[in-house]
Amino acid sequence: MSELLKIDHLSYTYHSLEGETQALFDVSFSVYDGEFLCVVGPSGCGKSTLLSLIAGLLTPSSGSIYINGKDIKSSGKNIGYMLQKDHLLDWRNTLKNVTLGLEIQNKLTENSYIQINDMLNTYGLITFKNSYPSELSGGMRQRAALIRTLLLEPDILLLDEPFSALDYQTRLEVADDIWGIIRKEKKTAIMITHDISEAISMSDRVVVLSKRPGTVKNIFEIKLSVPDRTPFTARSAPEFKDYFNLIWKELTCDEQKN
Amino acid sequence: MNRKTKKVESESITVSAAQKEFLRKHLIKKRRIRFFQIILLIGFIAFWEVGTYIGIVDPFIFSSPSRIIKTIFEMAVDGVLFYHIGITLLETIISFALVNIIGLAVAIILWWNDSISKVLEPYLIVLNSLPKSALAPVFIVWLGNNMKTIIIAAISVALFGSIITMYTDFKTVEEDKIKLIYTLGGNKKDVLIKVVLPANIPSMISLMKVNIGLSLVGVIIGEFLAAKAGLGYLIIYGSQVFKLNWVIMSIVILCIIATGLYKLLTYFEKKYSR
């Protein structure tokens, strides 16, 4: 697998009238093509800041981010971003919601509807095409949000705790759903979560960040011996709890030191 | 709208006896309320009319329902009534339209540029709290004794509150919805058109319902001071020459116009909200 994204000595500091807060300090890691990477860390460790930096919504205080060896601003690569909540717009139906990104980028043509209908069909939303968000279940809303992002054909997908607003049972189902879609579309994904089990169940590698200012403490490669791995079956892998303990220790030793 | 009625239909097929009983009671209560509302109106009119006959109410200063109807009829026949109503309505609708258009434009500018909004904030607050009727005489001096003055006076009544309310509503749009537009590659214009404006259509319609009333208030104040026609003129002129029939009739017609305009907006609100 080739290196797609490289984060190089990245730091970020927020400024406000109350003073400055260093959110990230000297963060470096790489993401490989087709990989599913999870970033875990205690709350307030700058996880969301990291995604905003990769998405180009913020400019690094120091350090750089490269895609295929080119600086992120000039790479011309598309980055998809999924926020914590689905944020479907209440006044648009499902079809109008998924086309929002294309509309904004002026890429919505007659031909796009073939692909849109295809995706809605594949991911079980075709019959809800004309429904409004209030009529969709949590899982359907999350899928619609993902399709909205995928239609822009992103090279890298960023997911910011995409399941945190869902109840536990829906969460497991939607995690399987979303993971399946991302795999099927062969996308590279970086997901942020504070749920260790979720991170292990979904990812190829897990990056552990320290508490603020966030910096990389360790990176674990997740290798689970289950046939037909999905986030759900991964949870019954024999190695699962070992990884859990490893990451748990990594996260908590941080607190004991202080 | 359509979706809602569909839902109700599908529910009504499987209604239980208890639910029917509940609906029946609800209907009885609704009818009882309507009954007392009508009784109150009829009672008031009857007391007023009978009072003038038996001498408790002086018809010279209080007029009477029969005199009002007679006056309406007389003035309708020679067409003066429609002329005055038409003038007031025209002024109200022009002011209302301008308040909404200017208000929306200024609110968008303030939302777009934080520095401008910070600079203008204290002035908007002062202008909003100022009793606008105090400005009307000044407008007469500046603009003359004409319809332009009345419209400007009416606009001044509703405009500043409108701007402040709309701008505050624009500002309360969820931060993450704005972030969403940026993550999809949009810019500030997209945020405005795709999120801020559509999210605020319901609040803009409620604001219009307030503005239609305020525009009418402004027009009447304007007509009191600077008019040769209109219901406000009729009220002032009527009270000066002691034709209280004119005054009370104009007030009754104003009640009807105010209610009518409000209902019209409620109708549009229902039509355009899902």
UniProtKB/TrEMBL annotation, chain A:
Q: Does the keyword Transport apply?
A: yes
InterPro entries (alphabetical): AAA+_ATPase, ABC_transporter-like_ATP-bd, ABC_transporter-like_CS, ABC_transporter_ATP-bind, P-loop_NTPase
UniProt EC number: 3.6.3.-
Q: Which domain of life is it from?
A: Bacteria
**What SMART domains does the entry give?**
AAA
What's the top EC group for this one?
hydrolase
In terms of Gene3D superfamilies, this protein maps to: P-loop containing nucleotide triphosphate hydrolases
Matching PANTHER family? ABC TRANSPORTER ATP-BINDING PROTEIN (PTHR42788:SF21), TAURINE IMPORT ATP-BINDING PROTEIN-RELATED (PTHR42788)
Domain ABC transporter: residue ranges: 5-236
From the UniProt annotation, give the residues forming the signal peptide. Answer: none
The UniProt keyword set, sorted, is: ATP-binding, Hydrolase, Nucleotide-binding, Transport
Question: Has UniProt tagged this entry with the keyword ATP-binding?
Answer: yes
Its protein name is Putative ABC transporter ATP-binding protein YtlC
Give any GO molecular function from the UniProt entry.
Answer: ATP hydrolysis activity
UniProt-listed Pfam families:
ABC_tran
Automatic annotation (TrEMBL), chain B:
Q: Which Gene3D superfamilies match?
A: MetI-like (1.10.3720.10)
Which InterPro entries does the entry link to? MetI-like, MetI-like_sf
Query: Which Pfam family, just one, is annotated for this protein?
Result: BPD_transp_1
Q: Does the keyword Glycosyltransferase apply?
A: no
Please tell me whether the keyword Transmembrane is annotated for this protein.
yes
GO cellular component, alphabetical, reads:
plasma membrane
Topology class, membrane: Multi-pass membrane protein
Indicate the segments forming the ABC transmembrane type-1 domain, all copies.
85-266
What residue intervals traverse the membrane? 35-61, 81-111, 123-144, 150-170, 212-238, 244-265
Q: Keywords of this protein's UniProt record, alphabetized?
A: Cell membrane, Membrane, Transmembrane, Transmembrane helix, Transport
- Its chief place of residence is membrane
Tell me the GO BP annotations in alphabetical order.
transmembrane transport
Any idea where this protein resides?
A: Cell membrane
Which PANTHER family does this UniProt record tie to the protein?
Answer: ABC TRANSPORTER PERMEASE, ALKANE SULFONATE ABC TRANSPORTER-RELATED, MEMBRANE SUBUNIT
User: What does the similarity note say?
Assistant: Belongs to the binding-protein-dependent transport system permease family.
Name this polypeptide is given: Putative membrane protein
According to its UniProt entry, this protein's organism is Herbinix hemicellulosilytica
